[in-house]
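Appendix B, Record 12. Input sequence as logged:
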Amino acid sequence: MDDWYLGETGQSLFKELENRISPILSTTFGYYSLQIGCPMIAESLQHSCRVKHQFTLDDIRLPAKVHANPSMLPIATDSVDLVIMMHHLSNTTEPHAVLREAFRILIPEGKLIIIDFNPLSLWGLRNFFQAWLEHVPFKGHFYTARRIDDWMRLLGFDQERIFRVGYLPPIQKTSVTRHLSWLEKGMRNWLPALGAINLMVYTKNISPLTPVRHRWVTRKILPGKIARPTVGRGMKYDR
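Logged structural output:
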């Protein structure tokens, strides 16, 4: 994916993605951020990020700062302010484990940004027919935004916003896509949900646990009826 984004088609899509994510990253503060996937373009993607220390994670084949399995992160719990997953969910066999680890390492109210292809788009349609060829970027399993959102809510994430990016058809030749600007404008205006990439922003929601006492546990301090004193009842006193 890193090499594909360096090509002409990938660059045009990356510029639009960069314009969308820059306002989000420029208002995100903290000490540590972690990008999982596409480590070679992380610096360009996060140039506006206000987090102090930025790390990338991938396997040993790519020059990332951290080499580890994303489903078993060697990172302390509640220690990362921002996690970016770029085209990783569609290329892993353990999406639930990866999301659980992201939830674990994020601080309360920390942000998780998921960037991946939209299966309900022309790019997803091509993936449906050509995923078996293992051609980048159409390999892997693309998940719908609704399905990812269900997973995130079960984990305890709250969705902040969702963007769709890229409305050019999945054609690798720029000489052809140059003449399809009318199609891009039409899809952007009339079919905004069919963008090539889903950009989903979530926050880790930690609600304080308040113990709820059941009715059968509730005890009254005083009984309902107070007994009247019997001593001295009916007694006569000398005057």
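The mean pLDDT is 84.
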